[in-house]
C-alpha cells in the first residue's frame, strides 16, 4: 500500500511540475449567462449596458499589448455583431474593471482605445438579440499582441481592427456567455 501511495504522490508531483500555464481569460461578473446588467440599453433593450470585469493571466513571452473583443456570431446579419473592440492595452495590464466599456467613466488603462462597434459608437454595447430569436453566444476574446500599438484610432471599424489583430496575434484566450430575449 505504501508503494502505491508513494507512486501516486510522485506521479502527482511530476504531473504538476510539467503542467504548462496557459494564457487564460476569466471574469468575476459573467459566467454562462449575461444579465440585464450587461444587456444593451437601446434597440428595444432596456439593460444597464455595463461591460463585465475581465482579467487574463499567463500571457506569452513577447507580448507587447493586448486587445479585447466581444462578438456575437449568431446575430441575424450574415456577418455577426461586434459588441466591444478595445486595443492598445499596455502589456503590464491584466484586467479591465467592471464598467470599463463606458467611455465617460474613463476606466480603461491609459493609451487603450475603444473603437466603434456595430452599434455605430465606440465603447461597450451589450447583448441585445432580437426577441424570440433564441440563445445567442457572445465570444469574449483577449489577444496577446506582438506590437505595442496597432496604429488605429477610435473610428476604425471592427473588421479592420480584426485584420490588424489577425496579423499581430501571438496567442488568444476566450470565454463564452449566452443571452436571449
Can you walk me through this structure?
It is a single chain. By secondary structure, the chain is an alpha+beta fold. It has helices at 2-18, 158-168; strands spanning 24-26, 41-42, 45-46, 54-57, 65-72, 81-90, 95-96, 113-114, 136-145, 169-179. The strands form three sheets. Strands 8-6-5-9-10 form a five-stranded antiparallel sheet. The chain has a three-stranded antiparallel sheet with strand order 1-4-7, with no helix packed on it. The longest helix is centred in the N-terminal third of the chain and has 17 residues, at 2-18.
Task: Briefly summarize what is shown.
The protein has 181 residues and is of the alpha+beta class.
Task: Annotate the secondary structure layout.
Blueprint: H1 2-18, E1 24-26, E2 41-42, E3 45-46, E4 54-57, E5 65-72, E6 81-90, E7 95-96, E8 113-114, E9 136-145, H2 158-168, E10 169-179
Antiparallel strand pairs: 1-4, 2-3, 4-7, 5-6, 5-9, 6-8, 9-10
Amino acid at each position: 500500500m505504501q508503494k502505491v501511495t508513494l507512486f501516486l504522490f510522485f506521479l502527482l508531483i511530476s504531473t504538476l511540475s510539467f503542467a504548462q500555464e496557459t494564457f487564460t481569460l476569466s471574469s468575476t461578473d459573467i459566467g454562462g449567462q449575461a444579465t440585464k446588467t450587461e444587456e444593451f440599453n437601446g434597440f428595444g433593450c432596456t439593460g444597464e449596458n455595463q461591460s463585465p470585469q475581465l482579467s487574463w493571466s499567463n500571457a506569452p513571452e513577447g507580448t507587447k499589448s493586448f486587445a479585447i473583443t466581444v462578438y456575437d456570431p449568431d446575430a441575424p446579419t450574415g456577418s455577426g455583431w461586434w459588441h466591444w473592440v478595445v486595443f492598445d492595452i499596455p502589456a503590464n495590464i491584466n484586467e479591465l474593471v467592471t464598467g470599463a466599456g463606458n467611455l465617460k467613466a474613463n476606466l480603461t488603462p491609459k493609451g487603450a482605445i475603444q473603437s466603434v462597434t456595430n452599434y455605430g459608437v465606440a465603447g461597450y454595447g451589450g447583448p441585445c438579440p432580437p426577441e424570440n430569436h433564441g440563445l445567442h453566444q457572445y465570444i469574449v476574446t483577449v489577444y496577446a499582441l506582438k506590437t505595442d500599438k496597432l496604429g488605429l484610432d477610435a473610428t476604425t471599424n471592427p473588421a479592420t481592427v480584426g485584420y490588424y489583430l489577425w496579423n499581430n496575434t501571438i496567442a488568444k484566450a476566450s470565454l463564452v456567455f449566452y443571452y436571449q430575449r
